[in-house]
Design goal:
heterodimer; A: 660 residues; alpha+beta; 5-stranded antiparallel beta sheet; 4-stranded antiparallel beta sheet; 20 helices; 10 strands; disordered C terminus; B: 145 residues; OB fold (Dihydrolipoamide Acetyltransferase, E2P); elongated; cytochrome c-type biogenesis (chain A); Cyt_c_biogenesis (chain A); transmembrane (chain A)
Chain lengths: 660, 145
Amino acid sequence: MIAETGHFALVLALVIALVQGILPLIGAQRGHQPWVALAAPAAGAQFVFVAIAFSCLTVGYLTSDFSIVNVAENSHSAKPLLYKISGVWGNHEGSLLLWILILALFGAMVALFGRNLPPDLRARVLAIQGLIGVGFLLFILFTSNPFGRLDPPPLDGQGLNPLLQDPGLAFHPPFLYLGYVGLSVSFSFAIAALIEGRIDPAWARWVRPWTLVAWCFLTGGIALGSWWAYYELGWGGWWFWDPVENASFMPWLVATALLHSAIVVEKRDALKSWTILLAIIAFSFSLLGTFLVRSGVLNSVHAFATDPSRGIFVLIFLFLVTGGALALYAFRAPTMQAGGLFAPISREGGLVLNNLLLTTAAATVLLGTLYPLFLDALSGEKVSVGPPYFNATFIPLMTPLILLMAVGPLLTWKRADAGAALARLKAALVAAAVIAGIAWWLLADGPVLALLGMALFAWLAVGVLVELAERLRLFRVPFRDSWRRARLQPRAAYGMTIAHLGMAFIILGITASETWQSESLTVMRPGESVELGGYSFTFDGARSARGPNYDTIEGDFIVRKDSRLVARMKAETRTFSNPPMQTTEAAIRPTAFADLYVVIGEPDGRGGYATRIYYKPLVSWIWFGALVMMLGGFVSLSDRRLRIGAPRQRQAVAGAVPAE
Amino acid sequence: MTRKRKRLYLVIGSVAALFVAAGIVLTTFEDNLVFFYSPSDLQEKGVDEDRRFRLGGLVEEGSVVRDGVVTTFRVTDLAESVPVTYTGMLPDLFREGQGVVAEGKLDGAGVFVASNVLAKHDENYMPPEVAEALKKTGQWQGGTQ
């Protein structure tokens, strides 16, 4: 009964989404108010029915109802409770349902928080959201029904892929989807603006919080995925330029560009059609990511067992959405009135350069990701594009971007004095030189990239702090005045400072862990030791044990530094029976300056075990930096001026608003 | 600054950025394409010693020999097979008779020195390249893919 209720709720949601997608559009065009007013309640109702469907599937998983095909194929009665819940989205149908749930949630939130929007704009935005919902509801109902029944039901389910039985999985997909789907709101706002043919600073203020929410969750979702790969796959790496990773990284790059160009629309009424285009591209990349993952064209942990009709459906949907949006853009964008003028060296100029670099970076990632697919389709030749390509294209693009990140916020709007801005960055330049010098001394004749990375870190970190000090006039006015200024600064300005600092931390983590990492790969017998990074790792034997739904071999390692006990570490190899599979549980011990990382592998049959030990300096700063970036986003979001719906249309641009 | 001048700068800036990016992309792209070959392809076409590529097929039954952290095995598409040596820890699902994709280079003696053996994430999952290579030699028996 529960499955049928869920299925029926989904069909109802589809009908409501159709109403939400069509009537308000016509109503807004013809000035028919009752139809315009329909949009908000429809968005709420759609969310309620999708939520009912999602709850039904969750109940199916919780009660291990194996008469539902989806539950029987992806769950098992012996699975711990957390993974019964997260297992709901650990498969194609369930994760699609989660996607739709989040889409409907965003629609309902726009309806709820958008009360101050002009009614026509709100109706159009919600209608576009509704139409996207129609596409995905058709997709799930016709190709990926999660509520199919099985007769007779099996005694037990086939279990969840053990790699996915991890707390990381419980959060990684929802975060990523909140990011992907959140970009649909910016997209809907862009399309609504194109239909109305009007974009002004107020529009940018309405869109910015939604882009910011999506960007924060996307940042968090990507970081979680990277962290999960780091500790669960046992390879010691944290980013592989895997096509699926790229699929989430491209929307992030474009969303970052969008976030910055929307500021120019908001403050200076310029770059309007470019911002619209970015909003369209950002969501198109989200859909492209969905297509890459769902169609099974990629070989990856994310590729669920596939069915070609699904890939074709998403591809058609992608063409309709992107093609339709771009056609509308080509038709309407020329009618938009260009706004504020600016000199090439100005805050706007800096942001334009930021946008150029970010979108070019997204384009190179796109080429590297899609080229193998095209070559396969055209010539049948199988190739892959590896990390060397991405490193070779990314580093030259990111270096100027990071140099610019310290300068840009110091430039004034309209026309700026580059010399004055650079003069203020003297401290950053000195810091960069000193750090690069120290790195050079530590490395003797080490890789140049390490020096570059450390110098960029110092330049950016100090540059960000210099900008903050400038804003507070620290050390130039009495401290009491600086404190007063500090309290009057808008939160959005602090958000920028925090997020940019997060970027500096990421650079530090990447550079340090790539440069000063050391590793050992040996067969170890009990009692044997390995020296690494100033630590001594002694293998203290291995034993078998039993977990809730797996058998495990636990290897104990005693870590000492200068004969002082630092830690006992326990690395595991787990063997699951449902489905039959092994996973590696790396033992990771973060210390003040580095991660110690131990993996135990196959026994050699003579009492020894293959072991791999890494010493990874500052690697956790990568994820810490991403967390800081996300925090910066949320701080900016809490800014009162950006409170959703707060700005009035055509409000005078706030006077001397400081850097942002 | 007139509107035209501004637009001109923008266009020049974007074109310059595009050129630089295209230059980098084109010079690095060719060198970093990693082709996929099955053991039969290797027999037919031959590959330069210094060229990195991916080798895919099944791990031949009874061919796996472990010596400490060095593993040697043969990759087969059931028509031809290639000896492989790998130093490191094999992915959890590395088994005789299962699909495998390895990345590396040939040494002078025709042994494939793998620097990376790709993990299969799921018991039932066959890398699509491997499935296709097996189909070509007429050895594919799997029904559902």
